[in-house]
Amino acid sequence: MDIRPILQVALDLLEIDRAVEIAKEAIAGGADWIEAGTPLIKSEGMDAVRELRRTLPGVRIVADMKTVDTGAMEVEMAAKAGADIVALLAISDDSTIQDAIRAARKYGVEIMVDLLSAPDPVKRARELEELGVDYICVHVGIDQQMVGKSTIDLLREVVQVVSIPVAAAGGIDASSGKDAIFYGASIVIVGGNITRSADVTGSARRIREAIDHVEGAGTSRRSLEEEMISIFREVSTPNITDAMHRKGAMRDILPIIPGTKIVGTAITVQTFEGDWAKTVEAIDEAGPGKVIVIYNGSRYVAPWGGLATLSCMQKGVEGVVIDGAVRDVDEIRRLNYPVFASAIAPTAGEPKGMGEINVEIVCGGQVVRPGDYIVGDDCGVVVIPKERAYEIARRAKEVEKNESRLFEEIRRGRTLSEVAKLKKWEKL
Ligand SMILES: O=C([C@H](O)CO)[C@H](O)[C@H](O)COP(=O)(O)O
Fold it and tell me: Does the keyword Endoplasmic reticulum apply (predicted)?
């Protein structure tokens, strides 16, 4: 085993031509091993491994078969296609692992076993070492990452109980890659943070540098809440609605000042045409990190204007969303405060005191409950149910990463339809 940590790049892509191009860019940035990811193998079969073998002579190829049965047959297939290492799942029966190892010895390849979803991963890692596997992979799957599970915590336990090399996989970036090596991994497996980047070589190089210099690792882990808020600030509302399977967008509500963005949890207000009491009272209940979300319904009588905006600003409130009209737009512009509304009108109502604060409302056609996450930008406003907010943030980030790679491919001269391989992936 090398002293230098191994950087394995997982090609979780659907097309072999794109995979080869990305693999070459990743190697230029310092990747050591190239993995034919499970999605690539499912999409292209063993030809994916064959093509990587042919185009990347001298590079170790890992076939992530995620085998759970017929271990010997799948190892033979991958080995004959040119793989050097074949990955199985730890949840397989011992008989599958043992027969896979026999086939691996026969065909001169090595076996990596992935602890993904193993019920007692630490115990299983010990058993797998006794069975004779070559590498253990501590892996938090892509869907598990989206709900906040982390590879590093499990890695720290597994490295205590085995002496064979351990790989860490699952949402690894420069900082967690560094942590993984610091806590005892010998191999870091990186997928999306390299392969979906517009600058694959640069991303691979940054991770390479991080894992080669681990001093100062293991110190700075953000809370899931902090991570989620910072992701919502980075991604766009289109990224979020894509992540929500086209749901969540309010209708007809746009920023009064283009270029302003809001991210926060909802303080809801139900009020009625011509009554601005509850909208203004809600300011006293709001503060930093909060977005006041108002259903008023009228396009002609505004429950919000310049004075309310200034008052909101003074309290550090993140922004305001109104299904209804807003006035004093010139003042709001001068204050440069994020107000999103469905109409502009000069007339105000009266403070009558009808309605309620912090009840479930419908705003822009979407149900909003107190505490739901609200993100607004130039494309509109989306509501993210609080229970799934972290997951949606992570999935939106994946959408954004994916698009940044597609942007780069279009910049290089391909058409969108070529890049998206529309003809191949049209629904039959
Ligand atoms: O094995 C993987 C996953 O199960 C899909 O096949 C990924 O290769 C692995 O998780 C690494 O990818 P990232 O999590 O995107 O780094």
Answer: no
Name which of 404, 346, 315 is nearest 22 in CA terms. 404
**pLDDT tens-place values along the chain, 428 residues long:** 447 999 999 999 999 999 999 999 999 999 999 999 999 999 999 999 999 999 999 999 999 999 999 999 999 999 999 999 999 999 999 999 999 999 999 999 999 999 999 999 999 999 999 999 999 999 999 999 999 888 998 999 999 999 999 999 999 999 999 999 999 999 999 999 999 999 999 999 999 999 999 887 766 667 889 999 999 999 999 999 999 999 999 999 999 999 999 999 999 999 999 999 999 999 999 999 999 999 998 999 999 999 999 999 999 999 999 999 999 999 999 999 999 999 999 999 899 999 999 999 999 999 999 999 999 999 999 999 999 999 999 999 999 999 999 999 999 999 999 998 888 888 88
Q: Which residues line ligand 1 (CB under 6 A)?
A: 10, 12, 37-39, 64, 141-142, 169-172, 189-193
CATH topology of domain 241-389: Glucose Oxidase; domain 1 (3.50.30)
Residues of the chain with CATH 3.20.20.70: 6-221
Residue 137 β-bridge partners? 114, 167
Closest C-alpha to ligand 1, atom 4: 141
Please give the Cα distance from 203 to 31 (Å, whole number): 10
CA of 148 to the centre of ligand 1 (A): 15
Ligand 1 centre to CA of 412 (Å) is: 26
The closest alpha carbon to 64, from 189, 249, 243, belongs to 189
Nearest residue (by CA) to ligand 1, atom 10, is 170
CA of 201 to the centre of ligand 1 (A): 19
Residue 145 CA: nearest ligand 1 atom is 14
- CA 220 – CA 173 distance, rounded (Å): 13
E strands, 74-156, in order: 85-89, 110-114, 135-139
CA distance 275 to 320: 17
- Closest-lying ligand 1 atom to the alpha carbon of residue 196: 15
Ligand 1 pocket mutation pick from 7, 8, 12, 188 by most atoms within 8 angstroms of CB: 12
Domain with CATH 3.50.30.40 in the chain: 241-389
Given 3-state DSSP classes, what are the helix, strand and coil percentages for the chain, each rounded to the nearest 5?
A: 45, 20, 35
Architecture in CATH for domain 6-221 = Alpha-Beta Barrel (3.20)
